[in-house]
Specification:
With 542 residues, the chain is α/β, with parallel strands linked by helices. Helix content is 23%, strand content 19%. The strands form eight sheets. The protein has a nine-stranded mixed β-sheet, with no helix packed on it. The protein has an eight-stranded parallel β-sheet with strand order 3-6-10-14-18-22-26-29. Strands 4-7-11-15-19-23 form a six-stranded parallel β-sheet.
């Protein structure tokens, strides 16, 4: 896990002298001056940085501090007087900085960065339409950042870590040809438009999975990073605009006990539009656990050199390559790595699970329905595949829907999507009832965090466990007579990330087990049923 504790930054400029004082003065005008003074301050900071290399980091920090501080005051002023130049000056300040971080040819024709080795911290900032194409960063933090307009990182290179946890891209995200020399952290990021990582190179950890924060402990149980569960979580509430999702805080990681006794709940990155990693190279771990792809996820011609966790049925791995490694490489059901004479193994359709051939990734609803029926038959015929099939169907149910389920004016395509969702649910629930011994799949584990479920009927089912953190239940939900032998999870251990019920819930004679799924640690005070009842009691009256 990666520890990312964001603290309020304090900008300290220089050690003294006239030039350092000039930077401080310009930073003050940028922070507190009127529109005209701010524009002049941007020009002055650029000049000072150009002429005094030792103050360039100070200039960058002054610009970042201004951009972080001003969105709320400029766009939501408490005194009723707006500052229409605020957003314009933020863009100008970032554009000035980006221009200095972009290589230019020198006298010999070699590209050299004008300002080299600059770290950037835009945690919690609003970034409007800035072009970071080909920029060179040292370490850069964009945690909790809201990107609007056209913002591109095409060809950008990070010498240190690139931190985008919980960032929201309300626009298209362009990282084509980017190079991440350090770790690239996109845990719980939200991509509302298209996301392009084609030909990107990840030399460090590529983290798009859930729980991008955590606490490491040594063998004596001491926190190595002097952190605590209370220190984790977002520092800035970004406007929430996710259909069928109610709680912007639910995708969290949580440490229960010592290392090796992790209990985590929550979500990974979410891609509402198409995501493309065509030709990308992952030299270190590629972590996509609990990522949700709402549209096509293209990994064609990608190269994986280390550990991989990519089990989303939407992924297209045609002609992708995977180097030999002792670490686990987890692929979507229906894909396998076949050794090749010309280098690393090639990802191809897994003939061993035919006739399934990743139909759940198809754009056509009829093909996806056929895929569900194929999986249904495979599970009946081959018990050894049932666990993978359940995981695959759950991943399909976690696919985000782009429209509100409860809308009154659904079109034919939207109604078809809901029908497919019900078919996927019924595939699972029909196999979880021991009353039908010939069709029963025992000990199933349902990973449905963040899923949108419609008319779920688990009545009379018996299964091992289920994760319903952040899950949205629409229509009538039946849990009567269900038995979870290891427990159901309806919220995160800290009380956040609660499941939400938008219709009646029947839970007579339900045995939902313990509140949490921990296999070790102290006993729980509440049962999962008590948690469910408290959630239902807290619902607003219709």
């Amino acid at each position: 896990m990666i520890v990312l504790i964001v603290r309020e930054a304090m900008v300290t400029i220089g050690d003294g002298g006239a030039t350092a004082e000039a930077v401080r003065a310009a930073a003050g005008r940028l922070r507190d001056g009127g529109a005209g003074l701010r524009r002049d301050a941007v020009v002055e900071l650029a000049r000072l940085g150009d002429e005094h290399p030792d103050l360039r980091q100070d200039v960058a920090e002054a610009v970042c501090a201004f951009v972080r501080e001003h969105p709320a005051r400029d766009e939501h002023p408490s005194d009723g007087e707006s500052d229409p130049a605020g957003a314009e000056v933020r863009r100008a300040a970032l554009a000035m900085l980006a221009d200095r971080l972009r290589p230019v040819p020198d006298a010999t024709g070699q590209d050299t960065t004008r300002w080299d080795g600059i770290a950037v911290d835009l945690t919690g900032a609003v970034v409007d339409g800035v072009d970071f194409t080909d920029c060179r960063f040292d370490r850069a933090a964009f945690a909790d950042c809201l990107f609007r307009g056209t913002t591109t990182f095409e060809g950008t290179r990070w010498a240190g870590d690139a931190l985008f946890p919980r960032a929201v891209f309300s626009c298209d995200a362009r990282f084509t040809g980017a190079r991440f020399d350090g770790d690239a952290v996109f845990g719980r990021a939200r991509f509302h438009g298209r996301a392009r990582f084609d030909d990107a190179r990840f030399d460090g950890l590529a983290w798009f999975g859930f729980g991008e924060e955590g606490i490491w402990e040594d063998e004596d149980g001491e926190d190595l990073d002097d952190a605590s569960p209370e220190a984790l979580g977002p520092t800035t509430v970004i406007p929430w605009n996710e259909p069928n999702e109610a709680d912007p805080h639910w995708p969290d990681a949580y440490l229960m006990g010592e290392y090796q006794s992790w209990e985590e709940g929550g979500d990974g990155a979410l891609f509402r539009g198409a995501a493309s990693f065509r030709g990308a190279r992952f030299r270190n771990a590629a972590w996509f656990w609990k990522v949700r792809f709402g549209a096509a996820a293209v990994f064609r011609d990608a190269r994986f050199d280390s550990q991989v966790y990519l089990d989303q049925p939407a992924a297209d791995l045609t002609d992708a390559r995977a180097a030999a490694t002792d670490l686990e490489q987890r692929w979507p059901f229906g894909w396998t790595a076949v050794p090749a004479d010309d280098g690393p193994a090639r990802l191809t359709t897994d003939a061993a699970v035919a006739p399934y051939a990743h139909q759940l990734a198809a754009a056509e609803a009829s093909v996806r329905l056929a895929g569900l029926r194929i999986l249904d038959g495979l599970g009946d015929a081959r018990p050894e595949l049932r666990g993978e099939i359940v995981t695959t169907v759950c991943a399909y149910l976690r696919t985000p829907l782009p429209f509100p389920v409860g809308a009154a004016d659904l079109d034919d395509g939207q109604r078809t999507e809901l029908a497919l969702r019900r078919a996927a649910q019924e595939l699972l629930t029909a196999r979880l009832r021991p009353s039908d011994a010939d069709r029963f799949w025992p000990d199933a584990e349902l990973s449905l965090s963040g899923a949108t479920l419609v008319g779920l009927d688990l009545s009379g089912c018996r299964l091992a466990c289920a994760d319903f953190t952040g899950t949205q239940f629409h229509g009538a939900t039946r849990l009567d007579g269900v038995l979870f032998t290891r427990g159901a999870l309806f919220r995160l251990p800290d009380g956040g990330g609660s499941a939400t019920f938008h219709g009646p819930v029947l839970h007579d004679d339900a045995d939902l087990g313990e509140e949490h799924l921990a296999s070790s640690g102290p006993s729980r005070r509440h049962t999962a049923r008590a948690t469910l009842e408290s959630l239902l009691a807290a619902r607003p009256v219709p």
